[in-house]
Amino acid sequence: MIDEGAKYVKGPVPLAPYITVDRNLYTGQNPASAGKLARRIIADFAEPAMRISVQKIISASPEAVYEVISDVASIGDRSPEAVGATWLRGRRRFIGHNRIGLLYRWSTLCAVTENKPGTTFEFYASWPSMTTWRYELASVKGGTEVTETMTKAGAQYAPIRWTQNLVGVRDRGAHLRAGMQTTLDRLAAHFDTETGATRSRSLCEKES
Predict the structure, then answer these.
(1) Where are the alpha helices (DSSP H) in the chain?
(2) Fold of 47-207
(3) Are 66 and 164 in contact (CB under 8 A)?
(4) 34-83: per-residue pLDDT in tens?
(5) What is the radius of gyration, based on Cα positions, of the chain?
């Protein structure tokens, strides 16, 4: 297949789960990849229980935006709900720490399912979230168009919905959309601040 022009990729760790997607071709590297591959196919083709997308143009290159987005340890600087994350060994999985309000807090094991520098960063958050989070980056005039999408294949469990209602979140879809928009707004502000600081340093250097 390589001789015929196919591009072969493999996971960094032998026997560990690894999948790759190219248009309508979905492949898993080994039996351990079956679960991850199934979740990706379901997320892409099944009618999800919830799918929300928000977009924003960021004044930075796709590569620079990717570096920030893929650094999940800094996610608390941007997201009003995901307050932090801790990488696990191998940096293919991490524990995400979340909260809504003062009382509702939870942590989720997450697995990176796609990471193409300057193009795509995606991860799957397991129970209780059971959602796929995907960031797609496209170079446009003025910087990078960032599309953040969350996809939840199945309906949320009743006890989780009850807890969300208890802390004041009666429309989870609207709540997520607002939080995602805030995340992208803060991402844009990060680069605006960085650009302003660079300009200030340059001005000071010229004056000196």
Answers:
(1) 34-45, 62-69, 158-166, 172-207
(2) Alpha-D-Glucose-1,6-Bisphosphate; Chain A, domain 4 (3.30.530)
(3) no
(4) 998 998 887 778 788 899 999 999 999 999 999 999 999 999 999 999 99
(5) 19
